[in-house]
Structure formats: structure tokens, C-alpha cells
Amino acid sequence: GLGLGVSSGLGFFSVYFLGRLSFFWMGLFHAVLLALLFFKWRHREKRLFFGTAGERSLFFLVCLAGVLLMVPHFLKSPYGSGLDAWAIWKLKARFLFYGGWDRLFSPTLSFSHLDYPLFYPLSLAWAWLVSGKETTFAAWALCAVFTLSCVGLVMSVFLPKNRSVAAAAALLLISTPAFIGIGSSQYADIFVAYFNLSGVVLICLSLSEAARRASAYAVWGGAFLALGCFVKNEGFLSIAAALFSLGLVVLFDRKLRKKHLGCLKNVLAGSLPALTLTLLFKTKAGFSNEWVNRSNWESFLASGGWLQRLWGVGSAFTGQVFNENSWVYSWFFILAVFILYFRALWRHGRWAVLWVILTAAGYSFVYLISPLELTGHLATSLDRVMLHSFPALVYLSFLAVFEEKKALFSRAPSA
Fold first, then answer.
1. CB-based burial, 349-361: b 16+ in 10 Å, e otherwise
2. Can you give the pTM of this predicted structure?
């Protein structure tokens, strides 16, 4: 994820300053970065694989199962499972690949959401540039890598602690039809989900008592969350919710103030490069967001129907939760854990609980002021919006279960 973030950033600067994707300059910068990484880590302990043989086998089998579940989706819809895969992401990738950078901002292409950032199109165009041609396999590979990276990240966090928890968390992810289906759809939502998950995991690690490199974890957590801004506008909500959540803990919890204040500063510092890159693109594009703007807010206030719209959002979310063809039992599990183990969640990650609440409130607000017909808007986007936080919520749920189980055993009397 971070590597593709760097690649897409280099691609953006290439088209921004040169007007096109330059294979020579991008290749040169990649070679320099790889050389620096090699010299930095060449003297470190060389471990290609983690854990025991059993843990590696479990990791491999779960990832293999994920691939086997994704392949039928790719074969059924090789070019993407919806119009937006082409109308937004691949169309922009083709302009970048064939040298039409300035055409991306033509009002004729207003249907492609001209203010949407370019992580996905640049990553696709770079893959096409390396392969020498436009190929459907590039989108397959990108989606598969990010989908399985969500699974792998959750497993890698829990495997050193508890193999059963790691396996259960990974199996919950790959057995959820919406997670595999949207991950295979060739939309950009799985990238947002991965960056949200990575940011939440790293910030939680930075705040844990066992973290030896708390500052580094927090900086990288901010970097990952901010990279979501370069994927879709929803990324701004995630990083803003994280910063605000940490700030609330700093303001109202004296015991945790010092640690969370340091984390807040590091998260903000880590987010600056990706935020700067995204704002530079926004300045170049020059288009306001079509969902969150003053006009939509004024129309919403004048309508006086906010209770009805809020009820519509809640009803649609409930319908998704009960949709056995999309989410089966996953959201029931998450909601049950958040209710039954709320104290454990609050004790070990209160900033994360606040992040979940603020993120949900932010998405609800966008739907409330949306200029589109609400029922249709929810029907075409709510499942993908729910995916943005889903892997992070799975991680937080199993973290709460693990911590509560550990506390239970620590309180048990010895024989």
C-alpha cells in the first residue's frame, strides 16, 4: 500500500510537471528509492517469513482461499462489475496512460467526478506503462493485492498473540460476500478500506503499552490514513475523525493526555505528505465537491426533512445488516462485540471507538445533505461506504475479544 502510494505520488508529479507519465523519470526515482532501502536494511536480520511453520501454513491457506473466492468475480466481470469502474477510474487511467492529462479536467467528463483523486488511475496507468500495454490483469492484481492485504494485516497482528483469534478474524473477512465482491469489483473502495485498516492498526499499536516504536507507528498510521485522501474524498473523513478523536482524548482524559498528545502530533506529521499531494491535485482540478458544499447544506436546512432522511439512512443501514447475500453474520458479530465488550474497547482504544462514531456520523451527514434522491443514492453506494470501515471494525472487534480473554485468564485463580 505504501509502495503504491509512493508510485502514485511520483506519477502525479510526473504528469503535473511534465504533462505525461515519464517511464524514464519514474523508473529512475524507483531505482533510487529501492537502492536506498537496500542499503538501509542490508545489515538487518534477514527473515523472509514470520512465525512458525504452522502459522505460515495457516496464513498461506487463508490467502489462497481468498484468491479462489475472487477469481470467479474476475472471470464473470473482467472489466469491472459496475459502470463507475470504467466511467471514473479506468477512463482517467487511459487519459494518463495515453498522454491526455489536461483532458481529465474537461467539463465534458463531469460524470466521472472531476474532483476525485488519482491514486487508482495512476496506479493502473503505471502498471500499464511497466507492462507496455493496457491490460485487464493490472486491475485484477491491484484489487486482489489490497483485498488480501486487509486479510493478511489482520492475521499478522493477531498471529503472534493467538492463532485462533487470527484465523477467526481472517475467515470472517474472506467469508463475507460483500468484502470479497466489492474487493473484486475493480472499484476504489477496497483501497480506502485498506488504508483505514492500516492507519487504525498502527495508531492502536503506537498507543499500546508494549509498543517500542510508538512514534514511528503513529507517523506511519497518519501516512496510511492520509493516503486514503488520495484515493477518494472519503479519506478526508477518516483522517479528520482520527485527529479529532485523539484530540478529544487529549482534552478530556488527563491520564492518557501525554501519550495521546504525542500520538496526535505524530499522526498529523505523518499525514502531511499525502494531504499536500491531494490538495495540490484539488488545486489543479479546481472543482468543488458535489456532495459536501454550502449549496447542499442550505437546501437541506430549507427542506426541513432531516428526521425523515435520517430515518431513511438508518433503515437502509439496517437493511444492509440483514442482507444475508452481502454481509451474512458479519455486522451482527461486530455490533454484538461493541455492545458486550464496550468496556474493553474503551479501555484499550477509546480513540478508536470515537473514530468509529465520528466516521459513522460523517457518512450519515453526507447522505443527509446529498442532492440526489436518497433511496437511490443509498442503494447504489451504502454497501461500498460500509466497506471503508469494515476491516478496521473487524480488527477492533477481535482486539476487544482478545484483550477481554487475556484479562479473564489473568484474573483466574491459579491451581
1. bbbbbbbbebbee
2. 0.90
